[in-house]
Design a protein that fits this description.
GO molecular function: glucosylceramidase activity
CATH topology of the largest domain: TIM Barrel
CATH class of the largest domain: Alpha Beta
Number of domains: 2
Strand content: 25-35%
Structural class: alpha/beta
Distance between the termini: 35 Å
Strand order of the largest sheet: 2-1-22-19-18-17-3-20-21
Family: Belongs to the glycosyl hydrolase 30 family.
Domain Glycosyl hydrolase family 30 beta sandwich: 392-451
CATH architecture of the largest domain: Alpha-Beta Barrel
Oligomer: single chain
Helix content: 25-40%
Keywords: Glycosidase, Hydrolase, Signal
Protein name: Glycosyl hydrolase
């Protein structure tokens, strides 16, 4: 049996603690309160609330077509309400950030855009534009999430422009035709206005999911850095400005391994003023790339917008530690204002999907026959941040300690949050010092804990 963490002082105190152990004996479970002590023990992590960095939008996952279909059609009303309250409510994970697909992704039952045309036909006046495909499941699901958490930030990303705008005349493969730039800008503008009319404000937009990748089994579109710069600077940015749209444009929306891609776009004098920040994915490279791009353009925001768990990596201990270290701690230490996983929910067969990933895992798994919910690794990893780091919190300074990965925040109410992961192979004793107050704790190997206190 794994050694459970015990507070250094037994009496009730002002520091609240929630913990997850690598052996799953504790899963985001509240521990006995810790009292402040006069002396430090073990390694010291100093938290400095006076050193402040980015303001947080929050944590969450994408409301894909698959997720919305399961939530809306494969659960009873009471099951659905219970899950949505658990994911977005204050007594649950309190997710405050989500992502929508503009048209289909691989996690859709069919491949579609919001302006499909027969082969070789075009629709430059957008007479066929319609978001009806989103009205069945996605829009009701997002509206329910907004009703539960009005502070929810919604971003959106297309997997492809409509086929008639592309070199392949298809949602599959290809790139955006230069002559279609004004039409694609109009398409994205219409989407934002249509969603706003439904009561869903789109706060953030990327012009293309994973623009360096052309999948051959589901919608995708290659958009090179020079093309993104030309499109943003010459079409999308001016279109939003002319129409008074306040949706912020984020570049890139792809992996850590190619920071040169967003750097090229940000270096473009026409595009740069219209770009609010850069979005990142986890599937290649190192999270430090976020910091490198931020250092080059400190006036631009950073968001982490996609990573998926999956059955290729089923071990709880390894994947929990990786997710907390790289996404919860790593991405926020490297300037992320918001952090997203991919699918909010998938079923027992890792779907519904058409093409693409066949064994991706959602934050939760919904049994498509019974509506029962299984909480996955990522549920607990993200809960260590989303439950305690509130919208508007600021990341604050904390010592980068070997073997005790950590990140700290200050909420608007003045409370402090410290998330610590013990990456050592043995229990770790450490002390936390902040504002002249100290407390100590022992954390089992591979475990994570969230500490919350008022200074």
């Amino acid at each position: 049996m794994a050694i459970l963490a015990l507070p250094m002082m037994a009496q009730a105190g002002p520091v609240k603690v929630w913990q997850t152990n690598a052996d799953q004996s504790q899963l985001l479970a509240q521990q006995p309160d810790i009292a402040f002590s006069k002396k430090a023990a073990g390694t010291v992590i100093t938290v400095d609330p006076k050193q402040r960095f980015q303001t947080m939008v929050g944590f969450g996952a994408a409301m894909t077509d698959a997720s919305a279909e399961l939530i809306r059609n494969h659960m009873t009303a009471s099951q659905r309400d219970g899950l949505m309250d658990d994911l977005f409510g204050k007594k649950g994970l309190d997710f405050s950030f989500t992502r929508l697909t503009i048209g289909a992704s691989d996690f859709s039952g069919n491949h579609y855009s919001y302006d499909d045309m027969p082969a070789a036909q075009t629709d430059p006046n957008m007479t066929r534009f319609s978001i009806d495909a989103a009205r069945r499941d996605v829009i009701p699901a997002v509206k329910q999430a907004l009703a539960i958490n009005p502070k929810l930030t919604v971003m959106a990303s297309p997997w492809s422009a409509p086929g008639w705008m592309k070199t392949t005349d298809s949602l599959i493969l290809g790139s955006l035709k230069p002559e279609a730039y004004p039409y694609f800008a109009d398409y994205l503008s219409r989407y934002i206005k249509a969603m706003r009319a439904e009561g869903i404000p789109i706060s953030l937009l990327t012009l293309q999911n994973e623009p360096g990748f052309e999948p051959d089994t589901y919608p995708g579109m290659r958009v090179e850095p020079s093309s993104r710069a030309a499109f943003i600077g010459g079409y999308l940015g001016p279109k939003f400005k002319a129409e008074g749209l306040r949706t912020q444009i984020l570049d890139y929306d792809h992996n850590w391994d190619t920071p040169s891609s967003p750097l090229t776009v940000l270096a473009d004098a026409r595009a740069n003023p219209f770009i609010a920040g850069v979005a990142w994915h986890c599937y290649a490279g190192d999270v430090a790339a976020q910091g490198a791009v931020h250092d080059a353009y400190p006036d631009k925001d950073t968001y982490f917008t996609e990573c998926s768990g999956g059955e290729w990596a089923p071990e709880f201990d390894k994947n929990f530690a990786w997710t907390v270290k790289n996404l919860i701690i790593g991405s926020t230490r490297h300037w992320s204002k918001g952090v997203l996983m991919w699918n909010l929910a998938l079923d027992e067969n890792f779907g519904p999907h058409k093409g693409g990933c066949s064994d991706c895992r959602g934050i939760v798994t919904i049994n498509s026959k019974t509506g029962e919910v299984k909480k996955n690794i990522e549920y607990y990893a993200f809960g260590h941040a989303s439950k305690f780091v509130k919208v508007g919190a600021m990341r604050i300074a904390s010592d980068d300690v070997d073997g005790l990965s950590n990140v700290a925040f200050r909420n608007r109410d003045g409370s402090l949050v410290l998330i610590v992961l013990n990456t050592h192979a043995q229990p770790g004793l450490f002390s936390v010092s902040a504002g002249g107050k100290t407390f100590s704790y022992t954390l089992p190997a591979g475990a994570a804990a969230s500490f919350v206190w008022k200074p």
